[in-house]
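Intended use. Records like the one below are meant for learning the mapping from a protein sequence to its folded structure. Do not use them to infer anything beyond what is encoded.
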Amino acid sequence: MKALIIDDERLARVELKRLLSPHKEITIVGEAVNVDDALNKITELNPDLLFLDIQMPGKNGFELLEELDSVPIVIFTTAYDEYALKAFEYNALDYLLKPIEPKRLEETIKKVIERNKKDTAAATEQPVLKDEDQIFVKDGEKCWFVKLSSIRLMESEGNYVRLYFDDNKPLILRTLNYLDERLDGKTFFRASRKHIINLKWIESIEPWLNGGLLVKLKGGNKVEVSRRQSIKFKEMLSL
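Structure written out for the chain above:
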């Protein structure tokens, strides 16, 4: 697996590389010293795994994840334990306190390998879902058989996704990354880290902040397409 180390402290990066050297399953493809550097490296290197410091000059590790449209596996590395709960709200796989202990890192690597195996198996075993396919949705006591073509918006809420169809907004126990990998890219588009939109439900598009776009869907939902995804979006729709 390709890993990117993101930490403003050079000695911390050197030490982490040393600790990772026995773990041949992990290939360190690069290092970044701050959020802007990390964004460029993630785009260039497409890592499977981030070892991410939280406190850095300028933007912090959480703000980096907010700017990503698709988030790799994340291992937070920090000298502070007060961020642990917030880290798992961002679907981090693990949270390592500095100085990192070799045994604790070994446990984390086992988790990474197991997660990667599950993700790979899911991707190979599950067929692509077309817009005419029907899915079963259960939220509390309510149940629906829903055609994907009727779902206009999917919104991430931690380890859950909220589906918007008709006047309903149920939550399902799935991540947005999982759905993104299974949905037909000709119909569904990953607008941002938090949203997937159904292209057939678009009512209007207008320029938005920082080079992004604002998409209004039939049904009233408004979704910001991030600057990075706007480039792909315009290419898809020939704007």
